[in-house]
């Protein structure tokens, strides 16, 4: 089941799109493509976007009601909070010093590039770890005006990596929930029945190796964006939860033009560099073999640790997040992505944040729906 299936119209939203393999209309690209535009489909898209933003605001208000204003202290980050994020930031981060935990560190705009990157890293780590009290204290200072705008904006605008964090969390959330609705692209039994029925009418996709969500441009782009090692803000801390889920630490060189054209083996190779990655089943087999050789369990675990023989991500079946055996971890991951959006909205609440436009832009990036600039012009004439 998709995340928040009872609140968000995922099925209606997914019904707007069809899978096309090496689409001639789209220069040979494989992806989910919007059907011919009709008033019903436009209404379904508007309905999804509106529901997404409405539920986000409702969850934000509910979470904010749990927090009360506290008296502002010079030390906005406690020592225990700093310890809670130490696994996410560099050991040299100022947050581990008394001065780095004071509000003066955050309001100083004359700092070096390194100090700005340290602030971005610390702020992102606090958000990832749900340290909202510290974040509210930082946000409360007048010089700090948080915003989600990309690129250059006013001198008073402070981003701390929020645009990148929101973009990746939203992209993963929408992409995986959407693809989950297309069961013929990830469930073996449904795929076999789909092929046998000949529903697509396209002989090219009457092959189980072709009918796969991982061949779509949307999935490949999302995977790269969520795990890339270079970002506009410099820091990559916001990609850590995504890397931990997928089990990918970095991606070799990939261009935008390749998304939707990479085969599954080629896609996996970009992230693993051809190095074998065991899954939980492989680990169990090795443990069994070593036990049959008479080795004690304690020694076996030491051997596996030294050999780094373990699944790289949190999902039991690697390279296939929508596999049915991965569903428990998938639900945790989607819930976490949603919580990141809620936490961010708590921090930028009452700012000029165009969440509708952001959701539309995300859908456009993933599945090529009409460019947001064109789509937004018609908002005043909603069906």
Automatic annotation (TrEMBL):
Domain of life according to the entry: Eukaryota
Protein name according to UniProt: Uncharacterized protein
